[in-house]
Design a protein that fits this description.
- This protein is mostly helical.
- The chain has one domain.
- 76% of the residues lie in helices and 0% in strands.
- The protein contains 11 helices and no strands.
- It is globular, with a radius of gyration of 19 Å.
- It starts with a helix and ends with a helix.
Length: 254
């Protein structure tokens, strides 16, 4: 195993421990605070957000809107992740700037920002998938992207359930429906909405909206990028896979 692969493997194992934890008291308190804040927001706002998220999920499942890159082939993990980190940094800055502008624009512009941010997040995930060498034209690869999305933006209880499926993806993917019409996509939009309400609703508050929008968007993209990298490492990095990869390289060089 190469030094970079060893480093990546250790980081992956540490992330796995962090991602698989029981809901804490703070998690429960945050959920209660979220509920109280939600009660202050008009129902029509909640409905608009739900519709925006629903459209995003449908676009991923049925469309090719975000398919812009071909899968990267024959690259080392280190090179792939160098490009991935560049993309994460680019989208962090983009989302932060966008959040500051819409946060300063008041209630209506802040509300309009939700689908914009979703689009930025999904474009990042499609770019990352291609850089790791996965063909996002494949329906089941797009479902993997949605699982990454859900893993990053779910409650701890929901996160544990999603991680369990993703940790054995090769087996789980065989049970997925071939017809996307039969896939239960509603769970995705509900979990995402519940997760981000607390942070993003504060962006709609006058005066502090711009600062909140910039900071929150930066952190949300950072969290999504970290989650995506480790999710693809679960498929790319293991002692056995690295050994097999090394043997192939040796054979190719002979």
């Amino acid at each position: 195993m190469l030094p970079y692969e060893i480093k990546a493997y250790k980081e992956l194992e540490h992330w796995k421990l962090k991602i698989q934890k029981k809901p804490s008291i703070l998690d429960k308190l945050a959920k209660g605070m979220q509920s109280r804040l939600n009660n202050l927001i008009p129902e029509k706002v909640h409905n608009a957000i739900t519709i925006a998220i629903e459209k995003m999920v449908k676009a991923v499942l049925f469309g090719a809107k975000y398919i812009t890159k071909e899968a990267r082939e024959d690259s080392s993990l280190q090179l792939r992740e160098a490009f991935v980190k560049e993309r994460i940094e680019f989208y962090r800055k983009t989302a932060s700037a966008e959040g500051a502008v819409t946060g300063a624009g008041g209630f209506l512009l802040g509300l309009a920002e939700f689908p914009i941010l979703i689009g930025i997040k999904m474009k990042l995930l499609f770019d990352i998938a291609a850089l790791y060498g996965y063909d996002v034209k494949d329906y089941k690869e797009r479902l993997y992207i949605l699982h990454i999305f859900q893993l990053a933006f779910s409650s701890q209880q929901g996160r544990n359930q999603v991680f369990k499926r993703m940790s054995d993806w090769d087996s789980y993917v065989k049970s997925l429906p071939e017809d996307v019409e039969h896939f239960d996509w509603r769970t995705f939009q509900q979990e995402y909405r519940d997760y981000i309400d607390l942070a993003k609703m504060a962006q709609l508050i006058p005066v502090i909206g711009a600062a909140v929008g910039a900071i929150v968007n930066y952190k949300l993209i950072n969290k999504l990028g970290e989650t995506a990298m480790n999710c693809y490492r679960m498929r790319k990095v293991s002692p056995l896979k690295i050994l097999n990869s090394g043997n192939k390289n040796l054979t190719r060089n002979r």
